[in-house]
Design a protein that fits this description.
By secondary structure, the protein is mainly beta. The chain has no helices and 32 strands.
């Protein structure tokens, strides 16, 4: 089922940049004049946007806090990055791939293979050893090439904490086996503010992503992952929680390489009393399916996601919504919008849906998709001034109302940090 889509096709002008200009949209997208400097705030009809100001690279945010790093240093801001009163030395700072500011103020962060926890605003930090389901130490493999130890903890999405029966749960999966070296694909969790981190689910050994010393792994070398699990994937695209079901959902990529499908959706429930997970695979699919996806969100009990379909045509692409009970029944899905490209990043907050394009596989340089009314109307923007960038890792709005977004060079290499602030719904739209 596909509702009538109203897609705005507009032009816009910069409101504050010294080099402000107005460009007419082409091919249904919107563009902006070049920015004057990183702190310049620019505007579209639907949102303001700006690069982060000078200072530590902002890795994550929550409310008024921001966690960042520079060469050899990690820092904490308490006013959304305006000042950084808390900092300490961390020699491996440039390899940080994950961080999360927890509700009680703890900060869990990780480099390529290790996790660390600070409980005192970065005055100190301590290593956290991941545990298996049975409580044993989970020790990262010894890499064939020390320059490529893998990304054990780096996520593609940006929302990782939820209130579950009055307890904040941290749950996330690693987006891996692209650059940095081959690693197992795991879903991790913590229920005690980062003091203990355990594996919620470990995928099987994918023979196409062995540790052969290269950046992405290959068909030779050491097998990695859970040898007892036949469910394999390349990496994890998204993990999210549905409070209406008290259940978690996860989706993975990428393709069938002749040894089994890598695109799966899993549903997991957690028994807090027993500290046990129960997972089941809801669907396994090919790469051109809507089930190859990301950006899982739940709003009022409804499941939303964005398709990352590619590979053999036709591509089953779009932003979809359904009742979770009907997830395995495509005829029960509502396609809210079709970006006509593979996309895997999306966040929904306060009635705004914000998604993005992958630069290498779309005709957009730095492409965004936005709806300010939960999918009734849509707009697409190409922020060409940033060059070829893929926006991902969308964090919830900070206390000033700005989403935080990673801009990645090409597909996945770290580049800039962008902030986006939605406007109120426009009073008039044009088809």
């Amino acid at each position: 089922m596909t509702p009538q889509q109203r897609v705005t096709r507009r032009r816009f002008l910069s409101t504050t940049a010294a080099t402000a200009g107005m460009l007419v949209s082409r091919a249904g997208r919107l563009a902006a004049a070049p920015i004057a400097n990183p702190s310049t705030v620019r505007s579209t009809d639907h949102f303001w946007y700006r690069l982060q100001t000078e200072g530590p690279h902002i890795e994550s945010q929550r409310d008024n806090k921001a966690f960042g790093f520079a060469d050899g240093t990690i820092s904490l801001s308490e006013n959304n990055g305006r000042t950084w009163p808390h900092s300490t030395k961390f020699p491996n700072a440039r390899h940080i791939t994950f961080s999360c500011i927890l509700k009680n103020g703890n900060i869990l962060f990780g480099d390529r293979t290790k996790l660390y926890l600070s409980t005192d605003n970065l005055k100190t930090y301590k290593p956290i050893t991941v545990k298996t389901a049975d409580g044993a130490d989970y020790v990262p493999h010894t890499p064939l090439n020390t320059d490529h130890p893998g990304w054990y903890f780096s996520p593609l999405d940006g929302v990782h904490t939820w209130d579950v029966d009055g307890v904040e749960m941290l749950v996330w999966g690693n987006y891996c086996n692209v650059i940095g070296g081959a690693v197992p694909a795991n879903i991790y969790y913590s229920t005690d503010n980062g003091q203990t981190v355990k594996i919620a689910y470990s995928f099987g050994q994918n023979p196409h992503f062995r540790d052969n010393g290269t950046a992405g792994g290959g068909k030779t070398g050491r097998l990695l992952g859970n040898a007892d699990n036949p469910v394999i994937c390349r990496h994890i695209h998204s993990v999210a929680y549905n409070p209406a079901e008290n259940a978690f959902y996860a989706c993975t990529g990428d393709i069938d390489r002749g040894v089994g499908q890598e695109c799966h959706w899993l549903r997991g429930t957690y028994d807090a009393k027993k500290d046990q997970w129960r997972w089941r695979v809801l669907v396994s699919a090919d790469s051109n399916s809507r089930y190859k996806s990301g950006g899982i969100n739940f709003v009022d009990g409804q499941l939303y996601w964005i398709s990352d379909a590619n590979g053999p045509k036709p591509h089953d692409q779009g932003i979809f919504r359904c009742d979770p009970a009907n997830f395995t029944k495509p005829e029960k899905h509502t396609q809210l919008f079709n970006p006509q490209s593979d996309c895997a990043n999306m966040i929904i907050q306060d009635g705004t849906i914000l998604a993005s394009y992958y630069a290498p596989s779309s005709s957009y340089k730095t492409g965004f998709i936005i709806s300010l009314d939960m999918g009734r109307t849509w707009a697409q923007y190409d922020l060409k001034e940033f060059g070829s960038r893929s926006p991902l890792r969308f964090h919830k709005k900070n206390s000033d109302g700005w989403f935080r977004v990673d801009l990645r060079s090409g597909w996945i290499k770290r580049a800039e940090v962008l902030f986006i602030k939605p406007k109120q719904q426009p009073s008039k739209t044009k088809k």
